[in-house]
Structures are given as structure tokens and as C-alpha cells.
Design a protein that fits this description.
This protein has 457 residues and is α/β, with parallel strands linked by helices. The protein folds into 4 domains: 4-117, PAS domain (Beta-Lactamase); 142-321, P-loop containing nucleotide triphosphate hydrolases (Rossmann fold, 3-Layer(aba) Sandwich), CATH 3.40.50; 324-398, Orthogonal Bundle (Helicase, Ruva Protein, domain 3); 410-455. It has helices at residues 4-12, 17-22, 42-48, 52-55, 60-63, 69-75, 115-141, 156-169, 185-194, 213-221, 239-243, 258-270, 296-301, 307-313, 330-345, 353-361, 367-381, 401-427, 431-441, 445-455, and strands spanning 27-32, 37-40, 79-86, 89-100, 103-113, 175-178, 203-207, 247-251, 272-274, 281-283, 287-292, 316-319, 350-351, 386-387. The protein has a 5-stranded antiparallel beta sheet with strand order 2-1-5-4-3, with helices on both faces.
Amino acid sequence: MFSLEFDLNTLQTIPLFNNIINSLHDGVLIADQDGIVKYVNSAYLRLTGVSSRDVLHKQIEEVRPGARLPEVLKTGKPLLGIRRKVRSIEYIADISPILLGGKVVGAISIVRDITEITELSGKLKDFTHKVQELSNRVRQIHRAQYDFSDIIGSSPEIRKAKTLAQRAAAGDSPVLILGESGSGKELFAHAIHKAGPRCNAPFVAVNCAAFSPQLLASELFGYEQGSFTGALRGGKMGLFEIASGGCLFLDEIGDMEYDLQSKLLRVLETGEFMRIGGTKPVQVDVRILSATNREISSLIRESKFREDLSYRLNVIPLTIPPLRTRIEDIPLLVDFFLERLSRRRGKRYAVSPPAINILNQYDYPGNVRELFNILEFAANMSDTGEIMPKDLPILSKVRPQISVRRALTAAARASEKDMISRALKNYGNSVDGKRKAAGYLGISLATLYNKIRQYDL
């Protein structure tokens, strides 16, 4: 008749058997078909905190209360992943039957220490919580500050721009915002994101003209530890990763270095990139909004901007009108800015009619940004809170003939619109017809398309 105890005794006479079993990091307990413990190794004793004389040749249920081994002896089915804890040690037991000729003659329990894993799991949960907190803080830092109600104006030009921007906001396509410096391109970018489907995700803005090519690359794509001298320990997450799920606003995109444009194009086409010094691709899901005050078509002709990148960025072109073309918006903007200054300073400000007349005559090369600068200067110079002509820094720059020049400019625009309308009528609205019309007018096809949008033809 088979004796498990006899076979274990025989095994233990084999040279190195005990050394091999006792060198295991996992604990081993063997019991016969009656649940009598026949063998334990040193790891089992260490993990469970018992001595060999406490368990050997004794009923398993007596020395290990709650043991599941008898259940395995009874059913002949293994039990895996049983969690137990003794004092500060946590372990998992896998119990399997020992079969001979289809009959259960004993059971073996393999015990694995998971104390360190449990501690690491707890630390991982803590770190995950901290990462989530930091992620929430990042979302608070990188979020859109303005919406369409912050875009002040009632002129046809600004209403047309807002309408197009609101339609663009509803989708997920790239938007290229064109306009002079200070015209409000970033304001429109904020509003588009805030009104779009990604509004609860980050809005990250970066000025491409403010960094050297190398520094801009590290800002956009991040870097791995040790990738270059001065790299932070642990590396750095790039703005693409921070903006993932939301929008990345690339201001002054026309100033981006040519070689870096290739890397940007790859991200737009594949949705992935590699950190500087990295070897693993990083997947991102980002909507791109970009802006420039430069003529992209001219940059392409000068080989300073990639034409294929322009196709990716310029899916929805949005032109912001300069302030000099929407004079009727100046009083509204003045009221808005003076209200802001009044709240900030705790003092009421107003503009006298003569001062408004001067403001209406100025050309504003710096656009809305310059108007606010003028008003802030005037508020500081005002003795009473009512801004007079003498308080305006542009007083010496405004001449009566300016209003004449404005009339001439308006007449020139009307004449240009009429010429383009006639050319289109003569040559047709097909692509070939527009190309012929552009040749007749002596302008590029891209300029013709811009004029068609400008004059709503």
C-alpha cells in the first residue's frame, strides 16, 4: 500500500533534497490523505510564524485554524489564490491535491509572500491619487479663460468672424486663426475651445516665437532623463501630452523653425511622437488650434513654411478683422475696458465726447491690445476719472485728414470688391475660373480666396 510518509522519507534521503526545497522563497507544506502534516520547509515556517514541532505529524485543522487544505482532500480539486495574513505578513496559498491512480493520497500547499507586493500596491494607490490630484491641478491651470461673450463688438466684420468661429467650435477640425498682432486671435482660440466638445479637457497655449527651435521642441514633445545637458531628473512631459484629450494652441505658428514643422506634421498625421532622447512612441489625442499674423502663402513661396503642414493646420481658416475696419466697435470696447479698469482700481472712469472722437480717428496698428494700452495710460493721467483728449497718448498722432484717409480706404475696398465680383462673373466660380480671375486681377489664387472670404463673395 502506498505511504506518502514513506515516500517523503525516501525523498529526504536523496542528497541535496532538503537543501533544494529549503532554498525556495515560497513555503511548502505537504499533508497526507488524513490531513496529517508530513513535511514543511523553512520558508513555510518563516512565513506562517510556526515551528516544525508545532505542525509536523499533527492534524492540519488543529495547528492551522481555518485551513482550506481539508477541503482539497475532500473534493480533489485545487484551491488557488487564497489570501492569508499572519501578524504583519501577507501571503497567498495555492493548494493542490496529490493524486495516485486517480485517488487523492495527500495535498500540497505552496505559500507565496505578498507583503512587499501589498505594500507596493498601497504606495501605488497613493501615487495614483497624487497623480490624479496633479492632473486635476494641471486641468485648472491649462483651461480656457474666455468665451464668445468676451469678444466685444457688433460690427458686421466681427459678427461674421464670431459666427464662423462658433461653427468651428462645434467640430474637432484644426483651425488656423489669421489676423494682425493684437487683434484677438488668442481670445478666439479660448472661446472656440470653451464652446467645443473638449471644453472640460486642457487648453494649452504656447507662443512658438518665444522659444529657440531646440527649446520649443523640448516644450512640445518633452524629453527623457539624461537626453541633454541640463535635462531634469526623470525627464519632462511635453505640452502635447499635457494637452492630450483637449486643445493645443500654437500661437505665432508662422515663426516655427522649418525642421520642427516636420515633427509637428508627423504628430498631426499619426497622433504619436517620441520624446527627445526617447525610444517609445507616445500616443496623444489633441485638437490643434493655431494662429499667425504672417501670410502663410508667402512663407510657403519663400520655403519657410511646409505646404503639407499648412493643409493640416488650415482646415478651417478664420480671419480676425483689424480694429481700423470696425470703427463702430470702438465705443463698445472703450466701455468694456473702462469697466474693467474701474473694478480693478475702485474708481469710476468715463471718456469725454472729444476723447471718443479722437479714439475713433486713430488707425490702431496694435489693434485691440493697443486700445486697452491707450485707455490704461489715459486712466493714469486723468485727474477726475473723465478721460479728456489731453490724457490720450495718441493725441499728437491724430490729424483731421485721417478721417479723409478712412473714407478713401473704404472707397478703395468697395472698388476692389467690385473688381473681384466682376472678374468672378466673367470667368466663373469654378477652380479654373478663379485661377483665370486671379491672373486677370494680378494676384495669387490664395489671395483671391482670402478676398472672397473677406468680402463674402
